[in-house]
Structures are given as structure tokens and as C-alpha cells.
Design a protein that fits this description.
Blueprint: H1 3-33, E1 46-49, E2 63-66, H2 67-73, H3 79-108, E3 115-116, H4 118-132, H5 161-169, E4 174-175
Antiparallel strand pairs: 1-2, 3-4
Helix pairs in contact: 1-2, 1-3, 1-5, 3-4
Protein name: RiboL-PSP-HEPN domain-containing protein
Length: 182
């Protein structure tokens, strides 16, 4: 097994989980820094992000959210963490399939389908429920997880930073025996 590839894969877990955590911390600090702009006339004002005048009907702003949505994004179980979790599962599995798995196969002189990982298998199952079942855990996917077993059927899948650390610490890649050699 290539130690350099294992180090790269572990580093990808470390960096991407750090991005998830930093984004939540930054959103919390941002939300806490906003002045209370609510008024009787506008109890939930909208914050516009961009370099255009939001009062100009022809202007294109980058984003806009009501203050309640921004404050809710700062919660560890809020919509931003949900989005980050869904994006992380999708991105990491895509990187495994497009880069890491073929690289491990090439480094070991084997076919790609012989390169396996319980952790990546769990990520695949969770990703399948995120992409194909609206993020709700199913027996067919999340129910087959080996490491990340906390999602019961019918619950919304949402990873927290500690879940990514759990997956990273259990990360192993192995080569299945060649069944054709028998």
C-alpha cells in the first residue's frame, strides 16, 4: 500500500473537515457581529451580499438571506452544517472514485474494483442517501454502514466534525484478494 497516497487521503479528510469546522465558526462569528436591524416594520430584514446595490432592480447580488436564516446557519445542526455535510460526502466520494482509488490500484498493480475501504464504503452509502433519498437514511444505504452507524432509517443524515474525525481515524485502504486466482 502506498504510504504517500494514504497520507494524501488522510490529509484530504483533515483539510476538508477543517473547512467544515472553520465555516461554522466563521458563520457564528459573522452572525454574532451583525447589528440587530429588526424593526416593527421589518422584523426579519434581509442581508444582501455582493458589490451591487440591492435596491437596484437590475442589480445582481451574490446572495441574500433573511437575518433569521443567517442566525440559523450558525447552529451546528442548522442548514449550513447540513449543506456542508451533504457537500462533503458527495465531494469526498467523487475524489475517491476519480483519483484515490485508481491511484491505489495503479500503485499496487491491481484492478480498481479490488481497492476497498470500509470508511469510503460508508461514505458511499451515506452519499447515496443524500443524493437519491433527500438525505434521509435508508436501510438499503445508511443501514449498511460499518463505521458510521449512528443514522437510523428515516433520520436525516448530517455529519458533525466529530463524525468526520471518527471516519478519518478508522480510515484504511486494502486490496481484496484476486478471486480469479482460485
Amino acid at each position: 500500500m502506498s504510504q504517500d497516497l494514504m497520507n494524501d487521503l488522510a490529509s484530504e479528510f483533515w483539510i476538508t473537515s477543517g473547512v467544515m469546522t472553520f465555516t461554522q465558526v466563521a458563520m457564528r462569528a459573522f452572525a454574532d457581529s451583525l447589528p440587530p436591524a429588526a424593526s416593527t416594520a421589518n422584523p426579519d430584514p434581509t442581508l444582501f451580499i455582493g458589490d451591487a446595490d440591492p435596491n437596484d432592480p437590475a442589480a445582481l447580488v451574490d446572495a441574500s438571506w433573511p437575518m433569521s436564516r443567517i442566525r440559523g446557519a450558525a447552529d451546528m445542526d442548522g442548514w449550513l452544517q447540513q449543506w456542508l455535510s451533504d457537500a462533503w460526502l458527495t465531494m469526498l466520494f467523487a475524489r475517491w472514485e476519480a483519483h484515490y482509488r485508481p491511484a491505489f490500484a495503479a500503485a499496487n498493480g491491481v484492478e480498481v474494483d479490488r481497492v476497498v475501504s470500509d470508511v469510503i464504503g460508508d461514505i458511499r452509502h451515506l452519499r447515496n442517501d443524500v443524493v437519491h433519498h433527500g438525505g434521509v437514511a435508508s436501510a438499503r444505504n445508511a443501514g449498511k454502514c460499518i463505521i458510521m452507524t449512528k443514522f437510523s432509517e428515516g433520520t436525516r443524515i448530517q455529519l458533525q466534525p466529530e463524525d468526520v474525525r471518527t471516519l478519518r481515524s478508522a480510515l484504511k485502504v486494502s486490496i481484496k484478494p484476486d478471486d480469479t486466482a482460485r
